[in-house]
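Write out this protein's structure.
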Amino acid sequence: MNEDKRSDERISTNLPARWGGVTGDHEGRIEDLSLWGCFLNTIGRADVGEVIGVEIKLPTGEWLALGGEITSYQQGIGMGIKFTFLTEEEEEALRELMK
């Protein structure tokens, strides 16, 4: 069995998301989440290194807008995103979401 080498705590989730990049606006679902990134299940296309905007629908119905960089992409499956430039408020919102 492979050991997960990521150091940040990750949680499994299934949250609606929408994102926009050079190929336009798309929808998807956040499958796992940490303070510094997530995996977004989506059929939208993106390139590794591309900077995108992603919004996560919170249980309250509000949307949490974040910026991120694509770290991995699997066509028809989704992408890994590293959150970049988090404000203190965004980081706190992610902490609350992960509780």
